[in-house]
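Re-run requested by the PI after the first attempt was lost when the workstation crashed. Everything re-entered from the original request form. Ligand of interest: flavin-adenine dinucleotide.
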Amino acid sequence: LAEIETRLRRRLEVVVGPANVLVGAESTGSYTTDWTSRWSGEAAAVVRPGSTAEVVEVLRACTSAGLAVVPQGGNTSLAGGSVPRGGEIVLSTSRLRENGAPDGRGLAMTVGAGVVLAAVQERAHAAGLAFGVDLAARGTATIGGMAATNAGGLHVVAHGSMLQNIRGIEFVLADGRVIDRLAALPKDTAGYDLTSLVVGSEGTLGVITRLRLRLIAEPRYRACALLGLRSVGDAVTLAASLPTDLPHLRSLEFVLGDGMELVCQEARLSRPFPERYPCYLFVEVAGVAPVLDELTSALIDRDEIAADVVATGSDEVDALLRYREGQTEAIRALGVPRKFDVAVPLDGVEAFLATLGERLQSEIPGARCLSFGHLAEGNIHVNVLPPDGIEDERVEDVVLGLVLESGGTISAEHGIGIAKAHWLERMRGADDVSAMRSIKAALDPGSFMNPGVIFPL
Ligand SMILES: Cc1cc2nc3c(=O)[nH]c(=O)nc-3n(C[C@H](O)[C@H](O)[C@H](O)COP(=O)(O)OP(=O)(O)OC[C@H]3O[C@@H](n4cnc5c(N)ncnc54)[C@H](O)[C@@H]3O)c2cc1C
């Protein structure tokens, strides 16, 4: 193996230059442990190709040497799929940084897979346009990684997930074939939609190299209300009606009482209200014309609202949303949580959270649970900090078992990764998973692309 690796290393150095082939724990460390610090493994090498042609050569070199490849963007995945399990080549997209100019008439922009979300947002903003997907990891998460996980984020209620915001894609299969779907006409039904197949495939079918993104008019007016509520049920009642009452609704997010206390403490924010509430709802509207009146009229005389504060203008709105966006970071400060990204039907959210609390208390006494998320989609980020010595499986059985009983999904937006691979068949059923495996076998017969992700090894 060492000899193969030495020969492969030389070949890779010829393709991408010696500075872009990293070997040894010291130089590969930041690529081999995930953002949560929960998963890590050794990499045979980290390779950083700078163009589609170099990705083709890197994949050909690795597969002919029999080494598996883990594509990696910003390494902000919360499902463990972006780091090696042991001995793979990490293909980092960090040099795929083409950042094309927005095409105002076509409302589109072509970018390299390694461009980070914040750079796309800045580029679009400079042209008076915007990108429809936003998430708190915007400074590090790449557009390629977001496409590979079909990331959702804060504005799904208004603009959908990544799939709805991608017009076309270029990707490279394990054997080096390049599939170019960048032309991206508004109507095109010629054959299978390979773009939607690759979006959400988590690096298991190939490497996404370039993307044509759909842009929207930049909303110049923003307003956001933070509501203090007496129960999750009140939040659900509001979440069921606000999307129809608010044509310019942009995000509808919730945080529970414990999470609000935690973020105030960790991010040193002052409490939003003198009183504490069991649940908080963030209602954001945005548009090209003023939106404040729309928001205040929709919230007036709603018995569910116990307290409210309204912000207008981007700076004030961003400051208010910090209570929500700071959740993931604040929870990380407590330790390494077992993270779940689940969704249940909206009218089942209250029962789900109540039953989850009861079951954790009876089955894993002492476990701390913090939940928050994208209420419009019934998407709950459940974070469990169990007492020492509790196996992951026990926590998963409680949380994911309840999700399946509730008619929900084990992954709403983060992907399956390695974290949930062994639950996929329980959720989808054997026939469904075997159809997915057939697709994988057809496009990557040697199973070189991200083995262990989506399907357990
Ligand atoms: C603070 C914080 C907040 C977050 N909020 C959200 C949120 O609101 N919504 C949400 O959906 N996610 C969220 N995430 C999760 C994460 O940011 C997303 O999953 C993001 O899409 C990952 O992008 P990345 O570039 O970091 O990908 P990575 O973590 O590097 O990789 C993720 C997966 O995609 C694959 N991959 C990466 N690049 C490519 C490529 N070019 N071609 C093929 N496969 C590739 C990897 O192999 C891996 O399986 C959050 C994470 C953090 C840390």
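Saved to the shared folder this time. The chain has a mean pLDDT of 96.
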